Amino acid sequence: MEDQTRAQPILNVVGEKVALGPVRRDLLGVYQRWINDFEVLRSLSARGLQPQTAEGEAAWYERTAVSETDVTFTLYERSSLRPIGSLGLHQIDHYNHTAMFGILIGEKDCWGKGYGTEATRLVLDYAFSGVGLHNVMLTVYATNERALRAYTRAGFREIGRRRQAHRVAGKPEDIVMMDCVATEFERPITLPPLP
């Protein structure tokens, strides 16, 4: 039987290095492997370092698949169509045209290749052109310099810090808040603008 992680995925948005498609039930084991790698998990500002069970990952998928306030994509390396992470918009507020952004690149051999920057730009373009949002915000740990550079290159700006609000090995660090607004975003021309 063909390996499901190598099957031709549905792609919603395609960039030069990466592509985005819907989350997939058949990738639950892959998602679970990523979220159980503490080196990968350490970069996520929304979670502590705790193992994730198969049942917990299945429950996440069930919530994500039907959510009206979250849009989550599987991130693929374009050249191989290998799933390498997930990302999306969370807490979408259509009244205020806002959302939160989050990304996880679970395949560590894909770190430092510009995939995160491009994927972030693609989601921002989707947020502004496809969903009609105006402001997208994120939080990131101050020690995650790679992510801070990628977010800045993608179009985010620092808007503040929650000082010493996170601990790593007992040492406090800042949580950086960043946002991007539609009127300042330079579109990579992937989606037609909304009328």
Describe the protein.
The chain has 195 residues and is α+β, with helices and mostly antiparallel strands. It has a domain at 4-133: Aminopeptidase. The protein has helices spanning 28-35, 38-41, 54-66, 115-131, 145-154, and strands at 13-14, 18-22, 71-77, 82-93, 98-105, 135-141, 157-168, 171-181. An eight-stranded mixed beta sheet has the order 1-2-3-4-5-6-8-7, sandwiched between helices. A hairpin with a 2-residue loop joins strand 7 (157-168) and strand 8. Helix 4 (115-131) crosses helix 5 (145-154). The longest helix is centred in the middle third of the chain and has 17 residues, at 115-131. The radius of gyration is 16 Å and the shape is globular. The model has no long low-confidence stretch (mean pLDDT 88).
Produce a short descriptive summary:
By secondary structure, the chain is an alpha+beta fold. Helices cover 27% and strands 33% of the residues. The chain has a domain at 4-133: Gcn5-related N-acetyltransferase (GNAT) (Aminopeptidase, 3-Layer(aba) Sandwich).
